[in-house]
Design a protein that fits this description.
The complex is a heterodimer of chains A (506) and B (557). Chain A is 39% helix and 21% strand. Chain A is of the alpha+beta class and 506 residues long. Chain A folds into three domains: 2-62 and 182-225, Arc Repressor Mutant, subunit A (Orthogonal Bundle); 64-176, Winged helix-like DNA-binding domain superfamily/Winged helix DNA-binding domain (Arc Repressor Mutant, subunit A), CATH 1.10.10; 245-500, 2-Layer Sandwich (BirA Bifunctional Protein, domain 2), CATH 3.30.930.10. Chain A is flat. Chain A starts with a helix and ends in a 6-residue tail after the last helix. Chain B is α+β, with helices and mostly antiparallel strands and 557 residues long. Chain B folds into four domains: 3-67, 2-Layer Sandwich (Phenylalanyl-tRNA Synthetase, Chain B, domain 1), CATH 3.30.56; 79-274, Phenylalanyl-tRNA Synthetase, Chain B, domain 3 (3-Layer(bba) Sandwich), CATH 3.50.40.10; 280-346, Phenylalanyl-tRNA Synthetase, Chain B, domain 1; 365-555, Bira Bifunctional Protein, Domain 2 (BirA Bifunctional Protein, domain 2). Chain B is built from 16 helices and 29 strands. In chain B, a hairpin with a 6-residue loop joins strand 16 and strand 17. The chains are: A alpha+beta (506), B alpha+beta (557). At the A-B interface, helix 14, strand 9, strand 10, strand 12 and helix 19 of A face helix 2, helix 8, helix 10, helix 11 and strand 21 of B.
């Protein structure tokens, strides 16, 4: 028994003795000034310990609706109509000064049935009262008696006569409305009765909190401490978290670093020259059009003249790369447009342009934002993250490229990688990367890869060198991991979501 | 990239093999096209822009039949000499200077074929022709034309004819203003004093390229058997390839190819004939194949792979002579042949090579600092956000200057580059209004401002912003957090009183580090708070990190 008492919370100790005298929870709320939810909770806990038994009672109430309130004040419209025409016949237009047309129409129906009214038609309708009508004015009917009650009124407490009146009134528009109220009762059990006698005894007083003063003066030695229900739910801690996408990026970055890759750096705004021309994307390529790329409203970009000449000639006739080029007139204006980078490959182009032959082999990566001018929906964003990687190695080739991708995706938990032909203006061979998801048992497209064209490498580096390159969509990997389907969920920055996302672990 | 619907039965007939849907699904993706779907009667594929020759049932089947080993090697097309002459006047020089032409006879056109021919024309217009800018193709029934033809340019008011599918004559300006196609493509003739036309010996206008044909002389029908083809644009080689692509497909349909003699009045080209259907000889270095693919292939294997891809090959000692068919426009470097060898070999047959040279990983120093800062703020129970670099111009205009605007944004919510992150964080508080306070956020990211001293005329900086929002926040909250960050980084800063649009007058200052202004701190002004529909006090700071990072790098060397 003392075990149970030692587990009682202060709230239960407050509420429990009251339940001995009063079982209705609403009344206890009023008596104690405790909150509704506190009393409810205490009763629930006591019930869990079998000290009380909970009972729920529902009661139906009847209350006045809008029209009911008005009728209670002014009387029923049919009665008011009769009173109007009691002495003199009246025209419809005169009556409408006192009654609304709705009220008049209802009254006509009711009174005609009771033969209390005559209507004649001259220029307009004229109303007169009958003998039956005069009688009706004098007596107070059941409906009027019913409305004299104080509302709300419990349906259970009504007698048959009242109920009949109630049903009749319910059939009329907006006079009465029904409400339900739930009452909770906590009936004390036999076990509860025994326990209640013990509560309050000094020998069974339990301390809620161990305080510093008890520790200072040693009084804790003579005290008992309440035993807690250690399985009960506790309030959540509001924690601080990294953004889950950034966490995933950090993780993937660590994989590339482990694999011996150097991180690249560079700006999000770029010239069309670096983003596209340097990568041998022809200036009339459909992807460069306004609807695919964000162009920025600033002064023309500046371009290094020597490199500009080289890139121009490689586009026009292949320059010194052994290529025929794209055969068109290269435009400086188009080159000088400023845009938001459409791919992180622009960083690869800038990086290799700074390399010397004796630096090789080199491996680089970047996980960075890229932009496409698209309307946002569940599978399109105008801004997303690309996982870019290059291996600049005179001994690099397509088979090795496949090897690097296999290693990275292996570390990400994908058991197999396959490639199939694709097309990008700056790589040849080009391929689409697919990885095998062992859980879903299916192949997922992850992005593009290839080897930079000689038109790119020879122009930017001064010598031809296979540069293995890939640009992977990071969002796909994250969506799969967090089992999300809507891309927008990644950048919603909803506080609850930010706090509660699981950690990115592989 | 264009998606095309191929007639499944026609493809099977052309390749001469009855492949099952499963087999087609296995093979097509490895041919170098993206397979979208196979339905009961169609094969839907996405054609990559480098292979316009695959944009027809005929062209696609030609590649597929050779890829499966059915009709391998170089496919040659021949044209017959003719007396069809076309005179290209000097007037077109500044308008649309070149054309390449051909005549096809003996086509048995039915409804299906007619549809296919128009489809090839349309798809080439959109892709290879860059919406008719780079090249536009016209097809005319021979029976309506009196040879020779003239390609010239005239003033718009001198050009008048009944455009295709219309019943009344219109002049050139009317066509560009009123006709559907005229309106769509009018921009291609913008600023031209003369408009180009093809005209026959009766001075009957055949068409006004790249806009529209004449109804009288430029409409092919099911009764047409012989057609005149022209292609107009700005580079003769480009046009010549386009004509070859159409001609080879029509020849595969059963047509016979005839030359057209071109007489250029004022151009180094002078007199020549098209189509030029000879294959092009290219050299392919043997070492080059292994270098890029990493495959050890015998000469015979290389020949097999190239023939599967439709090339002709002669083996030489150190190289191959490769004969590129007339319809391939994408072989501009020997690397393009290497890729086709890879495709012929099968990308799925290439084993990954895991040998690699040793190298050390290296993280950007700035990223290391970002990681530290993240840890710092997470330890202070703040939540990191990751918001867009694009924000509303209207809002930025109210709060900051030197903002970079986007020229062609689709949405007024995202039409300028963020000048600071604080605006994103305020916006983010607005999005989280339904949750309890306190709400404390931080973000690391790039901010942008106009700066003509930069190459791109835009200065980008790495920035850190933090915002605190609850009933009890004030200037002290922001400064405490700023202090604690600098203490962690073992650096000093100063604050000087300042005024700006985001913060409350008298409760804000600029942050000075190493003698430079790097940011601001303060209580957010009620005006700014209400601009974001918030009803809760906020304070915060934002600092540009680049200076701090370089000092840290120096200090910790």
């Amino acid at each position: 028994m003392s075990n149970i008492i030692s587990e009682l919370t202060p709230l239960e100790i407050k509420v429990f003795p009251l339940l001995v005298k009063e079982s209705e929870l609403d009344k206890i709320v009023k008596e104690t000034g405790l909150k509704d939810i506190e009393v409810q909770r205490a009763a629930q806990w006591l019930s869990n310990k079998n000290l009380v038994k909970l009972e729920k009672q529902e009661e139906e109430f009847i209350n006045l609706d809008i029209n009911g309130v008005e009728i209670k004040e002014k009387g029923f419209p049919e009665k008011r109509l009769l009173k109007l025409i009691e002495k003199n016949n009246m025209k419809r237009s005169e009556i409408l000064k006192e009654l609304s047309s709705d009220e008049l129409n209802v009254s006509i129906g009711l009174l005609k049935r009771q033969k209390a009214l005559n209507i004649e038609k001259e220029n307009e309708l004229i109303f007169s009262i009958t003998k039956e009508g005069i009688l009706l004015i004098k007596e107070k009917n059941d409906l009027e008696v019913f409305l004299e009650n104080i509302f709300p009124i419990s349906v259970n407490k009504l007698n048959d006569k009242d109920k009949k009146a109630m049903n009749e009134l319910l059939s009329r528009k907006n006079i009465l409305k029904k409400d339900k109220k739930t009452y909770w009762f906590a009936h004390i059990t036999d076990k509860g009765k025994e326990i209640s006698k013990e509560i309050g005894k000094d020998s069974l007083k339990y301390e809620e909190k161990l305080s510093s003063s008890m520790l200072k003066d040693g009084s804790w030695k003579n005290k008992k401490f309440r035993s807690f229900d250690i399985n009960s739910k506790v309030p959540r801690i509001n924690k601080g978290r990294k953004h889950f996408v950034n966490e995933a990026i950090e993780y993937m970055k660590s994989l590339w670093l482990e694999m011996g890759f150097e991180e690249m750096d560079g700006t999000e705004s770029q010239s069309a020259f670096w983003d596209l021309d340097a990568l041998f994307v022809p200036q009339d390529h459909p992807a460069r059009e306004m609807q695919d790329t964000f162009y920025l409203d600033v002064e023309k970009s500046k371009i290094e003249p020597d490199l500009f000449k080289k890139v121009k000639s490689v586009h026009e006739f292949g320059g010194e790369t052994g290529s025929k080029g794209w055969k068109y007139e290269f435009s400086k204006d188009i080159s000088q447009q400023t845009l938001l980078r459409t791919h992180t490959t622009v960083l690869s182009a800038q990086t290799i342009s700074k390399l010397k032959k004796e630096d090789l082999p080199k491996k680089f990566f970047k996980i960075g934002k890229v932009f496409r001018n698209e309307a946002v929906d569940w599978k399109h964003l105008f801004q997303f993250q690309q996982v870019e990687g290059i291996v600049v190695d005179l001994d690099g080739n397509l088979a090795k490229l496949k090897g690097y991708l296999k290693e990275f995706f292996g570390k990400m938990g994908y058991t197999d990688v396959r490639i199939r032909p694709a097309y990008f203006p700056y790589t040849e061979p080009s391929a689409e990367v697919e990885v095998y998801h062992p859980g879903k048992k299916q192949w997922i497209e992850m992005g593009g890869c290839g080897i930079f064209r000689p038109e790119v490498t020879k122009t930017l580096m001064g010598f031809e060198c296979p540069v293995l390159a890939w640009g992977l969509g990071m969002e796909r990997i994250i969506l799969a991991y967090y089992e999300l389907t809507d891309l927008r969920d990644l950048y919603r920055n909803d506080l609850e979501q930010l706090r509660n996302m699981k950690s990115f672990l592989k | 990239m264009p998606t095309i619907k191929l007639n499944k039965e026609r493809v099977k007939e052309l390749i001469g093999k009855d492949l099952s849907d499963e087999e087609l699904k296995e093979i097509i993706p490895y041919l170098g096209t993206d397979l979208e779907e196979i339905t009961s009667d169609e094969i839907i594929v996405e054609i990559f822009p480098n292979r316009p020759d695959l944009l027809s049932d005929e062209g696609f089947s030609r590649a597929l039949s050779s890829f499966i080993g059915n009709k391998i090697g170089l496919k040659e097309y021949k044209s017959e000499k003719s007396k069809y002459d076309i005179f290209i006047k000097k007037e077109v020089k500044d308008v649309r200077p070149y054309t390449a032409c051909a005549v096809i006879k003996g086509l048995k056109i039915n409804e299906e074929k007619l549809k296919n021919i128009i489809e090839i024309q349309e798809k080439l217009h959109v892709t290879y022709g860059r919406n008719r800018k780079k090249c536009a193709i016209g097809i005319y029934p021979m029976e309506a034309i009196k040879w020779p033809i003239t390609y010239t340019a005239k003033k718009p008011e001198e050009i008048s004819f009944v455009p295709l599918e219309k019943s009344v004559e219109m002049n050139a300006s009317q066509i560009l203003l009123e006709h559907e196609k005229g309106k769509d493509f009018a921009h291609l003739l913008d600023g031209k004093k003369l408009y180009p036309i093809f005209m026959d010996a009766n001075n009957e206008i055949l068409s006004m390229p790249p806009i529209i044909n004449s109804h009288k002389t430029g409409k092919i029908s099911e009764s047409t058997t012989d057609v005149f083809l022209e292609c107009s644009g700005f580079n003769f080689d480009v046009l010549s390839k386009a004509i070859n692509i159409v001609v080879s497909a029509l020849s595969d349909m059963g047509g016979k190819i005839f030359d057209v003699n071109l007489f250029y009045e004022q151009d180094p080209l002078g007199k020549l004939t098209t189509p030029k259907l000879e294959s092009n000889k290219s050299f392919l270095n043997k070492n080059y194949i292994k270098k890029y693919l990493g495959l050890e292939l015998s000469d015979e294997k290389v020949v097999e792979c190239l023939e599967k891809m439709g090339f002709g090959v002669n083996i030489q000692k150190h190289f191959f002579d490769v004969f590129v068919p007339c319809y391939r426009s994408d072989i501009i470097h020997q690397i393009d042949l290497v890729e086709d060898i890879g495709i012929g070999f099968g990308y799925n047959n290439i084993e990954s090579d895991d040998n690699r040279t040793y190298s050390l990983g290296k993280e950007n120093y700035s990223e290391k600092i970002f990681k530290k800062i993240r840890e710092h703020f997470v330890g202070l129970k703040m939540n990191e956000t990751n918001t867009y670099s694009l924000v509303s111009k209207d809002i930025q205009n109210k709060l900051v200057d030197n903002v970079v605007f986007v020229k062609n944004a689709l949405s007024s919510e995202f039409n300028s580059l963020r000048r600071n992150i604080m605006i994103n964080l305020l916006h983010n508080l607005k999005n989280n209004k339904m949750y309890d306070y306190p709400q404390n956020f931080f973000e690391l990211g790039v901010i942008f401002k106009k700066d003509n001293s930069e190459f791109t005329s835009i200065k980008e900086s790495n920035s850190l912003a933090a915002i605190f929002c609850s009933e009890n926040v004030n200037f002290t909250t922001a400064k405490q957090h700023l202090d604690s960050l600098f203490q962690d980084l073992n650096l000093d800063y100063k604050i000087e009183k300042d005024e700006n649009n985001i913060f409350m007058s008298g409760r804000t200052g600029k942050i000075i580090f190493n003698g430079k202004i790097i940011g601001f701190v303060g209580e957010i002004s009620p005006k700014a708070i209400s601009l974001f529909d918030l009803e809760m006090p906020c304070s915060g700071f934002e600092i540009e990190l680049d200076n701090i990072i370089s000092v840290l790098k120096e200090n910790n060397k």
